[in-house]
Fold these 2 entries.
Entry 1:
Amino acid sequence: MKLGLIGKKLSHSKSPEIHQRLFGLQHIDGTYSLLEIQPDSIETILSKLYHDGYEGINVTIPYKIDIMPFLTKISQEAVSIGAVNTIHLTDQGFFGFNTDYSGFSRSLDHAGIRIQDTDCVVLGTGGAARAIIQSLFDKGAASIIVVSRHPRSKPAFCKFLEQIGGREIDYDELARLQTGGVLVNCTPVGMYPKMDDSPVSEDIVSRYGAVVDLIYNPRDTIFLQYGKKHGAMTLNGMYMLVAQAIGAEEIWQGKSISSSVIEKIVKEMGE
Ligand code: NAP
């Protein structure tokens, strides 16, 4: 199988390692290449890759939205989220999906974090946040509050949030909020190399029963350390990262892959 990732700067990507580990476990003869492209080639890149023998492509920053007009069909969850991270290149056309969405959902299930009827708070309004919010909504969250430094400043995000009945607040209002549900960090705050930062204070984190960070480097952010200290269930972004890659492979290979494979790769990558 000839697979790859398109994006602008890819030198730090962990995707080749995850896919190579999967090829090893499945005894598949596959390649997964990093393909750095410029914005002016976005229109022709999929046809070119298809003719070069590629069957599957992942898409990352800044092309997750820009690639959408060049797809034959886009899955329902990717349309709602407004971004595609996985493309299946076939002789029937180019099909787009969002496996950040399913990867996040699987990571919650793996950690035993219940969303149904739970009040959820999401920090950040970027591309990752949209997949997470859609996933929380589809899992039956009682309410979804999104925290931004500049609430209601992005019209497309406001429209998206309105459709699922979510509410946007600022960090001052978050400090006044008393809730015991799930708190998810979808900001880059606390990520390597600025690992001493946390998006919110210990006092705020201590109010939640489950604390989730999409960051996987480091595995144990200050944000998650606050949660652990106060007895919350905690989950970092490594399982989601591996699960979104496995979700893409399931689409390309046309078969489901056991959760035990995800767990094995997560362990090999240092949880
Ligand atoms: P992004 O677009 O760069 O940022 C997300 C949002 O965070 C921004 O829209 C912004 O929202 C807020 N933000 C940014 N800088 C901030 C700061 N200094 N202080 C407070 N808030 C800030 O990032 P993204 O692509 O959505 O990704 C977010 C995080 O998720 C990153 O750490 C990324 O590595 C991680 N991620 C992990 C996975 C995984 O598989 N584990 C997948 C995707 C992403 P406001 O302006 O509204 O405040």
Entry 2:
Amino acid sequence: MGKYYHITTYGCQMNVHESEKIAGILSELGYSPCENINDADIAVFNTCCIRENAENHAFGNIGMLKKLKAHKKDMIIAVGGCLTQQIGKADVLHKKFPYVDIIFGTHNLNNLKELVQKKLKSKKAVIEIEDGDGNICEEGKALRTSYPNAWINITYGCDNFCSYCIVPYVRGRERSRRSADVLAEAQSLVCDGYKEITLLGQNVNSYAKGGEDISFPELLRQTAEIAGKFRLRFMTSHPKDFSEELAKVISENPKICNCVHLPVQSGSNAILKAMNRRYTVEDYLKKIEILKKYVPDCAVTTDIIVGFPGETEKDFTDTLELVKKVGFSSAFTFVYSKREGTVAAKMDGQIPEEVSKDRIMRLVELVNSQTREQSAKYVGKTVEILCEDYDKKRNLYLGRDEYGRMAYFKSDLNVIGEFLNIKIDSANGISLFGEVIKG
Ligand code: 5AD
Ligand code: SF4
């Protein structure tokens, strides 16, 4: 009988792609994927600690495996991801969950093969957390699970130290992959039939900022020059580093989607300063103006945090005003989560939970109403979508247009990975519904 692996992923796209790399390593070791964790010979938890709820979620799920492990003694349980990289957390995990076999840091992912082999020979838990800046390993092939979409890391780590954020502490200093490696990976993905490529980094705009390689706009341009029909996206852009040159490159290359994720975090200058974002509301609006000058139809999505220490009602309503002014096509909204070790964790004026809850509800309502308005404008129009999945519950295929808007439709054939024209008949919140236009 074969051996099976199961990976539980928490957090962002970066982690989803990292889980694909973990899957690649486990398949090299002879494991196959299984859907139910109870069937797994190795269960990996790829954790996230960016907000407390992601952390609690992982702790809860690891705790639930105690019973299974008690009667399935040979099962290996491994915990990786940025939770393990926080100072002292590996010890906490080991004490709280002594039945966990492997604990590995974000910088140790590339050694997972050796760690599993070590564990198979030893009764003791294997714990490897490497401090420091982290390196880049070009070996190993990700086992991609999101055809026709593929992600490519271009940078790792972050040097920005936004005052609320744990990422620079757990992911190390920013380092960029060589452009030749990124381009070769993109080329091979296009050859393999992938239709949408997303270049990933905590701050893609500072790619190769030491000047040792080509700039991010140039990397994007060269990636877009790869022959074949595919879409190109990138995330995340820090507004302070978003340049006119980048806007120009987007406008000149039809493969690059007219959709930019530009996290603003707050609409108040006082809060942006306290967040150490290094731009003002006016700077942000200027960047949007430059972007729209070159790409008038560009959709802009964002991240917003409410309840940052010291946020007044006026700071918050300034955020609402900014949301109205920019007309974001969608926004990820978060309640500020205190992360030990960050500068903001020591700030006065932590906001009571009920105030933050009230603010997030008002923000979500505004964002949703704007999204609804934008969706309604799609009705009657025909859009080109890339079909990416089948929704079993709805019995419908689904795909996104270049602006990132999701459309659902019927098809008798499996059309995943195909570009299709869809005539939109109706809209419901963020989702669109329509039919395939032949020809
Ligand atoms: N609390 C709430 N949201 C956070 N983010 C990062 N750190 C925190 C935190 N401590 C959000 C930011 C970032 C996104 C990936 O997560 O909005 O852009
Ligand atoms: Fe965190 Fe700021 Fe870096 Fe983004 S840019 S990962 S929010 S420190």
